Amino acid sequence: MDIIRKSDATRLKANLPDYDQFCAGFHWEDAERLLDGLSGGKLNIAFEAIDRHVIHGRGDRTAIRWISKDGARRDFSYVELQRETNRFANVLNGLGIARGDRVYSLLGRVPELYVAALGTLKCGAVFCPMFSAFGPEPVKARMEIGGARVLVTSHSLYKKKVAPWRKELKGLDAILLIDAGDEVESDMHDLPSLMAKAATEFPVAATDPEDMALLHFTSGTTGRPKGAVHVHRAVVAHHLTGKLALDLHPDDVFWCTADPGWVTGTSYGIISPLTNGATMIVDEAEFDAGRWYGILESEKVNVWYTAPTAIRMLMKAGAALAKGYDLSRLRFMASVGEPLNPEAVIWSNRTFGMPFHDNWWQTETGGIMIANYASMDVKPGSMGKPLPGIVAGIVEKHDGTVREASRPMTIGQLALKPGWPSMMRAYLHEEERYRKCFVDGWYLSGDLAMRDEDGYFWFVGRDDDVIKSAGHLIGPFEVESALMEHPAVAEAAVIGIPDETIGEVVKAFVALKPGHEGNDDLMLDLLGHARKRLGPAVAPKEIAFRNNLPKTRSGKIMRRLLKARELGLPEGDISTLESDEK
Ligand code: ATP
Ligand code: MG
């Protein structure tokens, strides 16, 4: 696969030093000094995101540009955001919410969500965002685990998703409805009326850097979601990784398309762009290729952060659509959440004149760990290299201990040396599950990967998803990427099916691009293409066509569900399941 070289001009525009220069002599304490902090060694995420800019005379810049479903725009300057979040913090105070109390949101991407998130942090309470599309059960389970005291939601979401079990949840003191009007019941409040009465001044809580700030549930791709605990110190990593891995500069117009219900939508959809003084775009609507290009054009987006599932849908919509828009303001594009197929990197380079830069991280790591930097040549299909201050390794397990692989391109667990600021501090109420992530001084990610001789990391598959066939270890990503090269394929998911003679055989599920029909001829063509690309040992033996693939709310393919169904096993936890059409 050809390397995408960065020209000197690109490097210069990114204004970033060389990768090796970054890493040499890096200390997290230096990164901490990029922020202001509060007196006495205290630190508060919301202060760094908002108030700091106002103090430094940058309050009139646009912090958030919100685009409603019907296309209306609403801007919040940093100083306006300061006032609104102060009001919200005062509202919480008025309800008796204290440091460490849990405040949940169940909202679409409306301005109130962003105000609630930052206002909660200002008040020293803990914020836990949930996808508004979750059903009643996942909402209840998350609120129970975290011990919710306050829920911010809308009238209709409340009725559908909370009212059915409301009486069963003890400790939930207040429900703040963003649109209650006169229809308020006893423990419910109309948020706009409370906000209107609240003062616009608030002394930001002097939180300790190690105080809990955010509770984020994992995506539930591999099983029951875990509640990862993050602290205020995480802001140091959010800030620096935004600069380095997303090339964020003050005054950039930045669009992270993720919903805050997924960790990406909080770390990089709220905190990082604001600490870096950018203008962040929030689009209330769901994915639509034309709408997205329209936003990139009209808002003059410079930096764009999205996910492979969206990129594959853009590819499905075709390059011609993209060419119809003026995207000349785009300077940097990045992707996270799933492996980014080489085909997608090459397609984006051809279509936009620059590639999507893949980066890797997890809910647990709180921020980007491995990335393709603006100043670095891109090897399509690789996640890039570890950020400064991050020690990543490929480790192999031997009788309960782990050892770092010495040879390049060895497949092993992707592991990290703990010590960066945004590392989770716990899985809430699941000490054993948390403890098991650490062996011999390494945090084990649960992903399998390889490192090449240049230090680039390559994703192989989730530990649970890797297929063992006739002595080969097959990563689903490699097979899916090969299928993606076929012009008819929009998406692919690959699983292993138990087989008596060779251990497992590879089966692929494929969704097609418009204009293609899943018939026997296409199946034979695809099988032939895969065999030619991968060899008979690795290529799928069987292909099933589907309208789409089962995915989590954060857009991740749920291979375990395809496998469970195939084997007639229980489906397991599907609380985060989204698209799923045969
Ligand atoms: P759960 O832990 O509940 O099964 P999840 O792991 O999908 O869900 P997240 O924390 O949202 O929850 O996702 C992190 C995972 O997403 C990573 O461990 C990895 O498997 C995958 N991932 C994220 N970015 C990339 C990437 N750039 N390349 C490959 N995989 C990625
Ligand atoms: Mg995970």
Automatic annotation (TrEMBL):
GO terms for molecular function: acetate-CoA ligase activity; ATP binding; metal ion binding. This is acetate--CoA ligase. Its EC number is 6.2.1.1. Keywords: Acetylation, ATP-binding, Ligase, Metal-binding, Nucleotide-binding. Residues 478-556 form the AMP-binding enzyme C-terminal domain. Gene3D superfamilies: 3.30.300.30, N-terminal domain of ligase-like (3.40.50.12780). It is an enzyme of class 6 (ligase). It comes from the Bacteria. GO terms for cellular component: cytosol. Residues 56-428 form the AMP-dependent synthetase/ligase domain. It comes from Ciceribacter selenitireducens ATCC BAA-1503. GO terms for biological process: acetyl-CoA biosynthetic process.
